[in-house]
Amino acid sequence: xxxxxxxxxxxxxxxxxxxxxxxxxxxxxxxxxxxxxxxxxxxxxxxxxxxxxxxxxxxxxxxxxxxxxxxxxxxxxxxxxxxxxxxxxxxxxxxxxxxxxxxxxxxxxxxxxxxxxxxxxxxxxxxxxxxxxxxxxxxxxxxxxxxxxxxxxxxxxxxxxxxxxxxxxxxxxxxxxxxxxxxxxxxxxxxxxxxxxxxxxxxxxxxxxxxxxxx
Length: 215
Known about the structure:
With 215 residues, the protein is of the alpha/beta class. It is built from eight helices and seven strands. The protein has a single domain, classed as Spore Coat Polysaccharide Biosynthesis Protein SpsA, Chain A. The protein is globular.
């Protein structure tokens, strides 16, 4: 099964505010873009992924991610992450009604294509499925089989909310790169330990992170 991934990305100037203890205001927008670039590049390199659609109205992010091969969906309505995902999912389905669709976080800089392929292969067994994040509280991936709606419920405690919505929880080992999203300095250190993509690595080298070279 080939999947179309929908990746939401808020304006870079407002992204990753919880990294304030690790990256200053001048670096956070670039770091958010680097996370998204490494996530999109890895997703496009995954054999199970047929297309990646990024929902963003940020002109810089749209230009850079389109250069990697992502399709950019603009004009998202106000209302936050879940509204953006529903909007992106509808746009994807309007072009390919019978596609299998997955919502993926934009902040997975350690993402590895083979691990993503394993997760999507497991998800294909269910009408809807999700993968909990590394903290086992949130969600990094939500899938919907052809003919099924995503029904995204991202945000606080999204693991519990997606499970309550009827989505199957994927209990897989060895897919840490798909679970390690980055919201805090601690998350970034965990992602760096896994091994991040080149754009994140280049910017992270400018940060003083304990346990990292130069930190």
